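[Protein data]
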Amino acid sequence: MKKILAIVALFVALMANAVSAESVLDKVAEKLTAKKTLTATFRISNSVEGVATGEIALSGDKFVFDANGIATVFDGTTQWTIDDSINEISITEPTPEEIEQINPFAIIKSYKAGYKPRLLKAANGLHRVELVPKVENSVKKIVIAVEPQTSLPKSLTLTMADGSNLNIEIMTMELGVNMPSSRFEVNKDNYPGYEIVDMR
């Protein structure tokens, strides 16, 4: 009888400490939102455009994403995409899905609303969670690798509906960075000669 009770107690303890897809992502989301702001550098690659490096800065729902000579600035409502190669600024009001394709951290923060999570086999000491959209869209699935000790994401791989992959490897990350609100604003006067394409 004592052996049975010991086995039951061990099973209960293991279940209490079991890792689930939701617990992994909830810890990541809590970590990312606790400090309100963050900056990160990353390496992004796909089969079409090759490899590029960039950086992202976040403050709440606002973000600045800069890679391959194209900067995207989102102030919570309006998005400016600044392409220096063609001297053009396009202005849009993106959908949540469009924001997630630009800002990978938005996926983690709001995964419960749009995705079904599933825990995958760990690899290289990292937790791996697969997210499948509840409603069919341009993203077929997302795999997020998370560092267990810090609960910070290390990489995201997006598999698109056309079968192509977009890999984002996070190189550095700093939380709680002081940033002026002007970082998430675009003054068109600072871009003389740029064509403004307003698609709102």
Notes: The radius of gyration is 20 Å.
